[in-house]
Amino acid sequence: MTVTGTRQRLTREARFTQLVAVAWQIIRDEGTEALTLSHLAELAGVTKPVVYDHFTSRSGLLAALYREYDQRQNQKMDDALRTAKAELAPRATVIATAYIECVLLQGREMPSVLAALAGTPELEKIRREYAADFIEKCRALFAPFCAQPLRDAALWAMLGAAEGVSWAAVQGAITEAQAKDELEAVIIAMVQASV
Asked: Which intervals hold domain HTH tetR-type (predicted)?
């Protein structure tokens, strides 16, 4: 990997975006173990204090990567939902497609980030927030098709299925199409069971 060049004056937001992009590149090229704040500073062409100001610690950097991934996934889902018919099957297709495609886009990097964050308070907090947001989004999206509110256990089972089939697709155990189809079927079955 090469240094990004001479130092440039960027806004705080633009610098954060640059650092996140360089961090993902380090993970892709060298693995998660190589991702340190000092290595990130070197390859981004900034001083260490700049990187520490944005992330404070390696765990903070990894947490920021997880949040960036989650925001990207939510944006993709929201964009697709705006154009989908307000019917059960099209909404289930959008959720399944967006979830699986986002995981596959990030490939093997996201599991490495999660593994590096394992056991940290940052990861537990982020995962709880992500799960709660995703479950509430699905509850609201599918409420019009349910005779009674979706059960929390059913929504958690759907999230578990999403994580499971996307992991299997990343590992090559199933195809992307199989993962999407299965997740869509799980979502539809969950909703129909509440009728």
From this structure: 13-73
